[in-house]
Specification:
Layout lengths: L1 E7 L5 E8 L11 E2 L4 H8 L3 E3 L1 H6 L17 E6 L8 E6 L8 H32 L9 H15 L5 E8 L2 H8 L1 H18 L5 E6 L2 E7 L3 H17 L1 E4 L2 E4 L2 E8 L6 H17 L5 E3 L4
Parallel strand pairs: 12-13
Antiparallel strand pairs: 1-2, 1-6, 2-3, 4-5, 5-6, 7-9, 7-12, 8-9, 10-11
Length: about 300
């Protein structure tokens, strides 16, 4: 026999084998495939289990499984829906009997009881995951909070050992207090959210971004020399400048000032890089705002 745990997309049209027992293993089946016109799709849509005998499975209107997942046929099949847990797992458990054996209603009840226990475990795991995320991420933007960013930056730098360049960019929204005073704090929150969205779209997966405090953000750029760091910072500045907001039926724009420092030339510890990037940011502010400044030890 064989048991498959199939994870489906929210619409139930595509899925992947999340776990497999009694078969070849699911390592080569991670790619999602179409569930259209299969009984897996039917069970997902109807939310009820379905039992197939060895004979009926072969003669059904639709195939039970997508062709890519069909194993050696021996006995009956039992499909039981796995209902969504919060924003978590949604799919179908497929049980395949050994040769000459079929499933009945008692088997379906057993699988449902087992899934109920699984759902409690999944729900608990999701709660723990959410608590961990809340502890590491800023509530307004979803970016790393200051404590987490600094800890992760220190960890990254400790493993670089001077072998690869990287950079830290500090970004501050210009005249942010004026937005709050003129349009209110909800408007200020909207500006912070949109600026954080621009940052998230600009950085790569190997980079890190965090909210340093208030209207100030910090970014770690992996394998970035001074030239690359300057290009990324300038791209961020221009994208923020082009972003428009509508407050009280008025179109409003904001600008940002940026400063950056590079490892290892401008510092080898997280404290040094953050301080020197902040010094460069201060020089951008002194120079008239809406500009990018590289740290220079002078």
């Amino acid at each position: 026999g064989r048991v498959l745990l199939i994870e489906a997309d929210p619409g139930g049209k595509r899925g992947r084998i999340a776990w497999e027992s009694g078969g070849e293993g699911a390592a080569d089946r991670e790619e999602k495939v179409s569930l259209k016109d299969t009984y897996v799709e039917w069970v997902l849509g109807q939310g009820v289990h379905r039992i197939f005998s060895a004979d009926s499975a072969a003669a059904g209107r639709f195939p039970v499984l997508p062709p890519a997942w069909t194993g050696a046929r021996g006995g009956g099949r039992l499909l039981v829906p796995v209902r969504a847990v919060a924003d978590g797992f949604h799919g179908v458990m497929v049980c395949e009997a050994g040769e000459g054996r079929n499933f009945d209603g008692r088997d379906a009840d057993t699988v449902k009881d087992m899934l109920a226990i699984m759902r409690m475990g999944i729900s608990h795991a999701l709660r723990l995951e959410n608590l961990e995320k809340e502890a590491k991420n800023d509530g307004l933007t979803g970016l790393l909070n200051r404590k987490t960013f600094c800890a992760q930056l220190a960890n990254v730098l400790s493993r670089l050992d001077g072998r690869y360049p990287c950079a830290v960019v500090m970004l501050d929204i210009d005249h942010f207090k004026k937005v709050n005073d003129t349009y209110g704090h909800p408007a200020g929150d909207e500006v912070i959210r949109k600026v954080s969205s621009v940052i998230r779209k600009t950085v790569r997966k190997v980079d890190m971004a965090g909210r340093y405090g208030g209207e100030e953000f910090v970014i770690y750029l992996h394998s970035a020399d001074p030239s690359h760091a300057g290009q990324v910072a300038e791209r961020l500045r221009l994208m923020i400048r082009q972003t428009r907001f509508v407050f009280e039926k008025r179109e409003v724009g904001v600008t940002a000032s940026l400063g950056f420092a590079c490892y290892p030339g401008d510092g080898k510890t997280s404290e040094e890089l953050l301080h020197h990037a902040d010094v460069a940011l201060y020089r951008s502010k002194q120079g008239g705002r809406d500009r990018t400044t590289a740290y220079m030890n002078q």
